[in-house]
């Protein structure tokens, strides 16, 4: 089918809601801006439904530029769910910080459009457009704490480095076009299969695209921006960058390596392998020394990008399923952890040092339990989603006989446990130095956290259902 | 065994349900929480008794087996599969037996009783799970999951250095077991039959349907061995043990020494020997040397400890060295002795930690020099302590003797040198235990604070008496225990014998 509005219905819904919200901003009084957040939430919900109903459809629409397949739907549902939870926590955050200016929500919705396009894209130009839509919105959002110097610094840093890396991506697209004569995935794929040996331009082009995606995923050595930006950005946006924007780049990258140019994976194998190992090790080692919990989670998110890269590197069915499963698991535990960090941070993000967590566990039993579950899952301990994800990724690597990759992953995980434990040590085993100030925990956030705890445990105990969906999503 | 398929699952579920139940009790009423936890652990113990009565000693293989698919997707399937044989049977019963006693020994815990009791019950689920799991992934899940309650028990309710001890305990065990995770996934793919079932993989390895090169076998063996050696702990992986045992609250030490260490030796018997016999045989001399070093080193270090609890902790290193030595001597006596010694150590060291806890509750010190002449003030305590001391050093008529004798006898058949060196450990044990006993209980009451010490109360007597009874029972009438182990141990011995015969055969062929 050439034109199918259903295929892009989630993007349309998000765009329409974004535009409507922008026009409503002047009409709604300052006191009621939060309600626009709830309206945005409705938009995300509708987009989610629009994506869900397409499950099982398989088509290429808009003249070979958009895929309508389970891979796209799986990714979109993940992005939209993450987006929804970010909007929910943002409403509370913005109210607390007195930053309630409603441009925030349209920007989030537009970035959501970008992510959905990246998941469904069947054309390098569309992929690029999606990435840019996502990026530009997030550049602004990172600098949203206008009163805070660090936030502005983070925004500028993110913007400059981001623009630079996008240039790499675009150059890569141009080279691939030069080698194959097209930007459409299906045609590129056909062209590659007809080549007798791969042309240098193509290899180089994909290599440059790795740089572009690697930046968004925060792979070593393209990760240096992440800690500063994560520290400066408002906590919900940090969570958004760590989870959703990273997942979007992983998904786009996964489609190129698995669907469009599987032949390339053997060429790029060594580089992907090294990247995966470095990302896991450096992320975990650097996280050990952090004193700020946002920075610690930033390095932890780098480390988890490394685990994801295992699945990308091994290039087998189990690996791809493992990546898709791990994305869901990581979204649950990481969003959950950041939500707790946001609440404990209180006004002006006053308590984001790891030291501030002393005695939290018994003072706020629910938040303590929640953060413990998420940290245990991030550490990869059984009966949590994080363990199941690691199990599949390790298994994929062993099936692919990449034993050294597993050895490094094991070493990295063992290092990683230490800093997750350290937070729990503070929460439960140390006394606070002074009186612990109360924390404002709205009902909506409490429910959201409960859902995330349940999700983390259910995925850990019964990983079968999500893994099955992931395996359907990988049938290109 | 019809009608009893779900018994193991029920035994796992009772403490789990108990933990949930406790979560809903108000935190204020500590007494009710303690009694509830005690009731749950007693119920678990009662539920585990049919295992002993219904166990068929003549049958080979697993009993009370239950098998339910857990999840299976895209060439990856994991089962919930449980069952026991003659080796795990008594470890389970020992666990359910020690738990109520540990709860009774935790009466002095005043702070945050509710999370304490919940964690104890969750710990019991994890420990029992390790001994009943017949699926590699299920085993790993339980193996790791029990770390978390223990970590919190040490870290929250422990002594002055509790955080250091808790983190060290967790990191050592976790790091060691990650390689085991990699190895068990590798076994799955070598198996190629889409199953993590331990028995199936063991059988297919034995019948050479899964062919491993010697190098692969060695690496897999080492990956499993590392996890178990840290847990046992075998010298030189033992450094976490003194910290954890000393800092843990009394019940934590009892469970650590009584049950957690046995997971390591159990793992050796369940995985390393039957799955990788060639590697086991090849590395046995090296491992035996480490075991003997551990026996002597642990005993020597125990001798110079000024702290009773630390002394008992180091004695564990020594005792567990005997167990490992017995396992790697590869004959029926030695392995049965080792299995029996696991139980003995649980009884006598568990009891020692409980006794040390009782005196610590009174005096808030465990230094030997702070005591002396306690026998005058606390005759009952002194008498019970004496029985347990003698059981620990292996006096004939008490439990320790049977295990050590079998181990030494079996080891002697294998290598006289190891047996001779190990036997010095028995002598050293008598030295450090009796010397400690003498300094604590005999002589004059010189320290003022000890003059007013009350003797044991009824709860304390009830805590320790069952262990004393067991020490006598297992020392005098060991046959019913050993007979139930026979066929399971024989299976492991046969497996090793087969692999040795194959090797000789291969060498001879090469010679022709």
Measured on Cα atoms, how large is the radius of gyration of chain A? Answer: 21 Å
Described by its quaternary structure, the protein is heterodimer
**Could you list the spans of chain A in which at least 5 consecutive residues all have pLDDT below 50?**
none
Q: Indicate the proportion of strand residues of chain A.
A: under 5%
Q: Approximately how much beta-strand content do the residues of chain B carry?
A: under 5%
How would you sum up this structure, described in words?
The complex is a heterodimer of chains A (476) and B (512). By secondary structure, chain A is mainly alpha-helical. The longest helix of chain A has 32 residues, at 149-180. Chain A starts with 8 loop residues before the first helix and ends with a helix. The model of chain A has no long low-confidence stretch (mean pLDDT 91). In chain A, a hairpin with a 4-residue loop joins β1 (59-61) and β2. Chain A has 19 helices and 2 strands. A two-stranded antiparallel sheet of chain A has the order 1-2. By secondary structure, chain B is mainly alpha-helical. In chain B, 75% of the residues lie in helices and 4% in strands. Chain B is built from 20 helices and 2 strands. In chain B, β1 (63-73) and β2 form a beta hairpin. In chain B, α3 packs antiparallel against α4 (113-132), α4 (113-132) packs antiparallel against α5 (136-145) and α10 runs antiparallel to α11 (250-275). The mean pLDDT of chain B is 88. At the A-B interface, α13, α16, α17 and α19 of A face β1, α5, α6 and α7 of B.
